[in-house]
From TrEMBL:
It comes from the Bacteria. The lineage of its organism: Bacteria, Pseudomonadati, Pseudomonadota, Gammaproteobacteria, Enterobacterales. InterPro entries: Phage_lambda_TipM. Pfam families: Phage_min_tail. This is Phage tail protein. It comes from Limnobaculum zhutongyuii.
């Protein structure tokens, strides 16, 4: 399995929404339970700022994985890599710097 080794620009957001199954009863009561055994997977909204002549390396890496194949990536402030997929990314080409905005989704397999 390949490893994504580029460092994200500051300002990463990590929206977290555990998958929960809810059954609502009368009078406002409800019962909640985890929806599956891996219900706490995270997604990471990232931006990479790289010199324009290096941007094709990131774009090519993501393109080769095609939103289907997993790869390893170590989130900032963590020590262990996690398995992620990237289903969409958007390069914004400047005169000297290219910004690539993407979303990494944590997966189990």
């Amino acid at each position: 399995m390949e490893t994504f080794h580029w460092c994200a620009a500051p300002g990463m957001s990590v929206p977290t929404e555990p998958k929960v199954r809810v059954v609502k009863f009368g009078d406002g009561y409800e019962q909640r339970q985890p929806n599956g055994i891996n219900n706490k997977l995270r997604s990471y909204s990232l931006t990479f700022r790289v010199p324009r002549h290096e941007a094709w390396l990131i774009d090519d890496f993501l393109y080769q994985h095609g939103g289907v194949e997993t790869f390893l990536w170590t989130p900032p402030h963590r020590y262990e890599p996690i398995k992620v997929v990237c289903r969409k990314w958007t390069p914004s080409v400047g005169s000297t710097v290219t910004e690539i905005s993407c979303e990494f989704e944590e997966v189990v397999a």
